[in-house]
Amino acid sequence: MRSAIALSASARHAHEASVGVDRHDLPFRIRLALDIADQALSTALEECPANNPSTPAERPLLLQKVVAESALLLRCCAFLRTTNYELAARIESLATRLAVLARSDRTWAALCREPVCAIEHATAHVLLTDLGYPDAAFDGLLAHVLSSDESFAGERLPGQDLEREWLLQIRAGADRDRSAEPELLARTGIARPLDALRASIYNVYAFTHVLLHATDMGQRTVAWPRGHAPLVADAEAALAIALDADNLDLAAEVLWTWPMAGLAWPPAAAFAFELLTRVQDEHGFLPGPEYSHENQSDGGRPWTRHTLRTSYHSTFVMGFLCAAMLRTPPVMPPCTAEPDAGALAALGRITRQLDSAGSALRWLDAIAQSSPARQAALAPLLLTAALRRAAAASDIVWLRQCLAIGLDLGLDDGLGFEQGLRLLKRATRFAGSGASTCL
Predict the structure, then answer these.
(1) What pTM, to 2 d.p., does this model score?
(2) Domains in the chain, CATH or no CATH each
């Protein structure tokens, strides 16, 4: 693994000295996402139960999901139609293909059967209509369903309400004139701190989706309930969670926080983006969490069914991210000074503990190949991952040691540190109560 990611010392330091993004490389990654969308649609059509009654060993592609996410991809990069003629042709080709699939007989039936989910079923139709590909007959049915009491039945999670409101605003043509409803945004998880030590992968996905819908993929500014600084703290903690889970799909979604919210990039985000581009270049796509090279059956060509089933979404979100970066060019962090011997020793204690788990994770390998200055800049990322592992293992001794390292490195104002310190205080009170049950 190290040999696959490592750069030579001279190349590495030259690369890190620039700490920038090649804007000419971003359209290539968007084109890759558009290409894989076309292939995923073809495979989903073939695997549709009506066309292929046999059940594949792997989870098949769901046509409605691929259609909706392809439409989201088009919305994210549609602004490039006026600046990049090659991408404009690909966008038009994909939109024309989606226009038929978005209003299929199956989707018409879904509107009739499930009026409470009508706007979700019509996601691709709404987005394509806004892009200039309308369908009056389908929209007539949608309007009829949305006017019924049944379309407002039941309960929804706050994030689902935000997505619904976003789609309704797009359909009404008010998406660019209005921001996300403050009251609605205040009900979502983004209005409260992320639990850096216990948050699940699904909690992090909920965070990224709220940001996507609230900003309309970076097309509108948002008054965040807690301001920008807490949002960045949550995003950096979420990035540590995604990288330590080796979930590059989730990491790409977390990274869109910075361009979509119009924020300057911290060292952790710059590092993660470089890691994702390197892995994507090695594979020809961005591997999803379920991807396995052993399941490739045709000599490693990138567009196998296994690749499409496991990695089309991660390649999509990489396209979302790159389009957002073209819309809002990233302000990358400056180069950092070389750390002193004490800081290097503290970093070594964290990395040795993280490496002791026995799994060669890509992000740890990449950090190991970085210069001391960059390793020091990534200390918050390492500390959050170490604190999270200590909490998951209920290892209070290691938790205390991580907090001591955080103090040595001056990271005591970080989200993970603050939550780890409170956990230690709770554990100390628990131990003092005389209870014998393990945490």
Answers:
(1) 0.90
(2) 22-327 (1.50.10), 341-432 (no CATH)
